[in-house]
Amino acid sequence: MRRDRGRGGSSSDQRYDRIREARARGYEGDQCGECGNMTLVRNGTCLKCDTCGSTTGCS
Description:
This protein has about 60 residues and is of the alpha+beta class. The protein has one helix at about 10-25, and strands spanning about 40-45, 45-50. The chain is elongated.
C-alpha cells in the first residue's frame, strides 16, 4: 500500500526551502538569533543581519 504525504511536506523540507531561498537572494542561509529572519550577510569573518543589524558576536 502506498502512502501519499500530501502537499504540506515536512518541517525539515520547509526549512531547507527557506535556506535555498535566502541563499538565492544573496544571504548566507542562517537564521538570525535575535529576530529569526534568514537575512544574515557576511561581515568580515562574522555575520550581520540585514533586518535588525545584529551580529554574530563580532564588533
